[in-house]
Amino acid sequence: MAARDLLLASLVLSCSLLPCYGVVLFSSLQRTFVVTASPAPGQVLKGGVDKITVTWGLNQTLPAGTDSAYKTVKVKLCYAPISQVDRGWRKTQDHMNKDRTCPYKIVARPYSSANKTSQSVEWTVKRDVPTATYFVRVYAFNADENEVAYGQTTDAHKTTNLLQVEAISGRHTTIDICSICFSAFSVLSLVGFFYIEKRKGKRSQ
Ligand SMILES: *[C@@H]1O[C@H](CO)[C@@H](O)[C@H](O)[C@H]1NC(C)=O
Ligand SMILES: *[C@@H]1O[C@H](CO)[C@@H](O)[C@H](O)[C@H]1NC(C)=O
């Protein structure tokens, strides 16, 4: 893991030294959308069968012009903290381009001030959505395709109004490719390490 940590550290460092182009931090986004989803929490949704209805709109108490930069809206299904146990990569990363919390796109639509008050979409939960707990998040993007604002069905700690999905096929999860890659990587590094040590040992004899 040391090599990966080093790589990450140097990436972070270079990003803090150079102005990293296009880096958007989630913590810098304004929460401006009011988002709701049905069914009510507690009901278990079956992948490939059941539907989620999402309704969203600009918070009407915000000053006029809040949404002047909004060009598109993307609605996404996101892992809630309960789904993150043993799956660290599902955790929210502040760097939007590293964040893997919201892997399922429900819909993308152009944003128009004419229909900002309330829009909704009905979405059948895809078959490949793993058994886990979710919430819905709506992002607003500007003309440069950077996130500028959001709204979500849950509170800031992601504990309320969570949706429960149960994969229908009995496949508990689509394989967590990342964790497999990382374990393969650690095994390879270990093997490499022992090989190098062995050669060193031979040479010094
Ligand atoms: C709408 O915005 C106001 C002012 O920022 C805030 O106090 C309120 O909680 C927001 N409403 C919702 C439903 O998010
Ligand atoms: C909102 O307006 C945009 C642009 O006029 C349009 O493309 C989009 O489909 C509209 N959304 C709805 C739900 O009518």
Automatic annotation (TrEMBL):
Molecular function, one GO term: nitrate transmembrane transporter activity
InterPro entries referenced in this protein's UniProt entry, alphabetically: Transptr_NO3_Nar2
Keywords (A to Z) from UniProt: Cell membrane, Membrane, Nitrate assimilation, Signal, Transmembrane, Transmembrane helix
Signal peptide: 1-22
One BP term from GO: response to nitrate
Entry's transmembrane regions: 174-196
Entry GO terms, CC: plasma membrane
Family: Belongs to the NAR2 family.
Function statement: Involved in nitrate transport.
Name of this protein: High-affinity nitrate transporter
Originating organism: Salix dunnii
